[in-house]
Amino acid sequence: MVSTEYRIIYCNECKQVLGRYNRKYFTDERIGEVIQSHHRPHVREGHEIELLLERRD
Ligand SMILES: [Zn+2]
């Protein structure tokens, strides 16, 4: 069985998960674009965005 990997976009300042994306469809480059377009306020405020990895079987 193949496990699915997800990229978790987490904001260290807000202490909240901003998004969860299947790595099959979202490369890290794409994730970078998503952060810039959808989570821009956090970036603009200088929040520390962390990329976590979640694996589900
Ligand atoms: Zn934030």
Structure description:
The chain is an alpha+beta fold and 57 residues long. Helix content is 28%, strand content 40%. It has helices at 28-38, 40-44, and strands at residues 4-11, 16-22, 49-56. The protein has a three-stranded antiparallel sheet with strand order 2-1-3, with helices on one face. The protein starts with a strand and ends with a strand.
Mean pLDDT: 95
Largest sheet: 3 strands, antiparallel
> Terminal Cα separation, in Å?
7 Å
Q: What's the total helix number? A: 2
Q: How does the helix and strand content classify structurally?
A: alpha+beta
Low-confidence stretches: none
* H/E topology pattern: EEHHE
* Widest sheet: strand ordering: 2-1-3
Give the helix proportion (percent range): 25-40%
Q: Strand tally, please?
A: 3
Overall 3D geometry?
flat
Ligand set:
zinc ion
Cα-atom radius of gyration: 12 Å
List its traits.
single chain, 57 residues, alpha+beta, three-stranded antiparallel beta sheet, 2 helices, 3 strands, 28% helix, binds zinc ion
Sum this structure up briefly.
It is built from two helices and three strands; from the N terminus they run ββααβ.
Could you give the topology of this structure?
Layout: E1 4-11, E2 16-22, H1 28-38, H2 40-44, E3 49-56
Antiparallel strand pairs: 1-2, 1-3
This protein binds zinc ion.
Zinc ion binds next to loops.
